[in-house]
């Protein structure tokens, strides 16, 4: 039986080839050359350099690990600061300065009693280094005992160094104790928490209703005074008589 031509194309193993002895001789020569190569011992300078590298690695690797652990621990605070900066940049992008005008401006400060106040306005115009003209100003004031007051108007003038705010047109004051006051104008001393007006005022609150020609309000001292002739309607005037009033009435009947 004769082999077909396809059998001649089968792959053959190299280890059974005829020149296998030649390959072994080459490998043996390479092995002998490797054994005959002379390896010299490192000199003192090389040993010192290796020791310095080992010492540096001994301190550098733990230091790098400590830095990585610290960065992992501080990452939440870093992320918070980055988000704050993004929010500040976004808020600044909303502001538009044009010919001395600014939109959505915010002014913050502290009064003489370390209470916060904040003034916002839809449009502001800087008049010199101190005066700022406001359109639709709103003032939020922190008072003693965690109370607060909110006052707004159509126009205003804010003196930054003096910490005063003059409001005109549709002035509305609201306090968290339920007091509501409105009038055509009001002058505020933000540093002393004082609000005053010489124009008419209509006030409503837990005490009742009051119409007057002016008022003086010291929010830190808790003083509210109305000036000029006016009309006062107290809440207890429309209700049942008090105990003292009933005793006076009973005493008058007994005397009769």
What's the short story on this structure?
With 256 residues, the protein is α+β, with helices and mostly antiparallel strands. 32% of the residues lie in helices and 37% in strands.
Structure description:
It comes from Gluconobacter cerinus. Pfam families: LptC (PF06835). InterPro entries: LipoPS_assembly_LptC-rel. This is LPS export ABC transporter periplasmic protein LptC. Keywords: Membrane, Transmembrane, Transmembrane helix. With 256 residues, the protein is α+β, with helices and mostly antiparallel strands. Among the domains are: 33 residues; 137 residues, lipopolysaccharide transport protein A fold (Sandwich). Helix content is 32%, strand content 37%. The chain contains three helices and 15 strands. A six-stranded antiparallel beta barrel has the order 3-4-7-8-6-5. A hairpin with a 2-residue loop joins β1 and β2. The protein is rod-shaped.
Task: Looking at this protein, list some descriptive labels.
256 residues; alpha+beta; lipopolysaccharide transport protein A fold; six-stranded antiparallel beta barrel; 37% strand; LPS export ABC transporter periplasmic protein LptC; transmembrane; LipoPS_assembly_LptC-rel; transmembrane helix; membrane
């Amino acid at each position: 039986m004769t082999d077909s031509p396809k059998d001649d194309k089968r792959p053959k193993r190299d280890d059974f080839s005829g020149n296998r002895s030649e390959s072994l001789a080459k490998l043996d020569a390479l092995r002998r050359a490797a054994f005959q190569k002379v390896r010299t011992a490192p000199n003192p300078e090389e040993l010192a350099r290796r020791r310095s590298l080992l010492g540096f690695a001994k301190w550098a690797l733990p230091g790098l690990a400590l830095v990585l652990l610290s960065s992992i621990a501080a990452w939440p605070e870093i992320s918070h600061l980055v988000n704050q900066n993004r929010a500040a940049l976004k808020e600044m992008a909303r502001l538009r300065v044009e010919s001395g005008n600014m939109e959505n401006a915010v002014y913050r400060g502290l009064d003489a009693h370390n209470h916060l106040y904040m003034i916002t306005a839809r449009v502001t115009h800087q008049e010199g280094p101190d005066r700022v003209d406001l359109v639709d100003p709103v003032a939020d004031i922190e008072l003693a005992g965690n109370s607060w007051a909110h006052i707004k108007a159509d126009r205003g003038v804010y003196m930054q160094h003096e910490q005063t705010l003059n409001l005109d047109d549709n002035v509305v004051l609201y306090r968290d104790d339920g007091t509501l006051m409105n009038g055509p104008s009001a002058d505020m001393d933000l540093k002393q928490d004082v609000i005053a007006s010489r124009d008419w005022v209509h006030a409503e609150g837990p005490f009742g209703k009051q119409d007057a020609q002016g008022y003086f309000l010291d929010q830190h001292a808790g003083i509210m005074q109305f000036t000029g002739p006016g009309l006062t309607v107290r809440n207890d005037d429309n209700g049942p008589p008090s105990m003292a009033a009933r005793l006076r009435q009973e005493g008058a009947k007994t005397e009769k």
